[in-house]
Specification:
Layout: E1 2-3, E2 6-7, H1 10-26, E3 34-38, H2 43-54, E4 58-61, H3 68-78, E5 82-85, E6 102-105, H4 106-109, E7 126-131, E8 141-145, H5 146-158, E9 167-170, H6 179-183, E10 191-194, H7 203-213, E11 217-220, H8 222-230, E12 242-245
């Protein structure tokens, strides 16, 4: 993984995720526990996702870009009792989660210690919970099991869209379902390149990140793809070989 904080090898990411998972197990997290995740796009985000999964639990993405009322609703709707966040976001959680909710920072969770054995998640256990947009009413939480996301990742790998030679740009906000395979792409051996926070709104920032880090796989809605084309710079992304798009009419 490559991010503004530096680089992590597969071994380093796995070790950090296991420390997070062990810490969560130590405070009572277990398979099918829903853990809130309020973390900005960064190495912490990927480490936290894999750490929650290592604990056998499911993560509830709480995008820091969302307004407080929506985050409050999502946390209450999912019944989260534990939230994993970053130190600078901890104060924001006051009033967003019920009293008594356990708040853990990534810094605390990745500190050496613990040593609690990690459970083995089964295919029917929850992997994550995603809320719908709420365009037709209140947002609804959709529970995704391990078997579903594993099937998607295996399909992407089998079709040659993911693999050790692929570098995936992680730029989709984490509360969108489309972001999950970006964050989890390393399960298929791919390299994850974290784009700067908020860059999903900035075509030139996306193009700069693609060029700087040799990104080969990008996904985006057709509106974003049009903005990338209209920038006049997309043809400078010589390493980009895979583009995925959906969520809107393509033409």
């Amino acid at each position: 993984m490559v991010s503004a904080e530096g680089r992590l090898s597969f071994g380093e990411l796995n070790a950090a995720a296991e420390r997070v998972g062990s810490h969560l197990v130590g405070i009572g997290v277990s398979p099918d526990t829903c853990v809130g995740l309020l973390v900005e796009p960064s190495a912490d985000l990927v480490t936290s996702v894999w750490g929650i999964l290592a604990a056998g639990a499911a993560y509830l993405p709480l995008s820091p870009d969302y307004p407080d009322p929506r985050l409050r609703y999502m946390a209450a709707d999912a019944g989260v009792q534990v939230v994993l966040t970053q130190s600078h976001l901890r104060d924001r959680l006051r009033g967003l989660v019920p009293e008594g909710t356990v708040v853990v920072t990534v810094e605390e969770a990745t500190a050496p210690g613990g040593g609690h054995p990690l459970p083995e998640a089964r295919e029917h256990h929850l992997a994550y919970v995603i809320h719908t947009s709420g365009s037709t009413g209140s947002p609804k939480g959709v529970m995704i099991e391990h078997r579903s996301i594993v099937a998607q990742l295996r399909w992407l790998e089998r079709c040659g869209y993911l693999g050790p030679e692929v570098s995936v740009l992680q730029k989709t906000p984490i509360s969108f379902d489309a972001a999950q395979w970006e964050v989890l792409a390393c399960a298929a051996g791919a390299r994850i390149v974290m784009s700067p926070p908020g860059s999903f709104r900035d075509p030139l920032s996306i193009i700069a990140t693609i060029r700087e880090h040799g990104v080969s796989a990008l996904q985006g809605v057709p509106t974003l793809l049009r903005a990338l084309v209209d920038s006049g710079e997309l043809d400078t992304c010589s390493t980009l070989t895979r583009i995925f798009s959906g969520g809107e009419a393509l033409t």
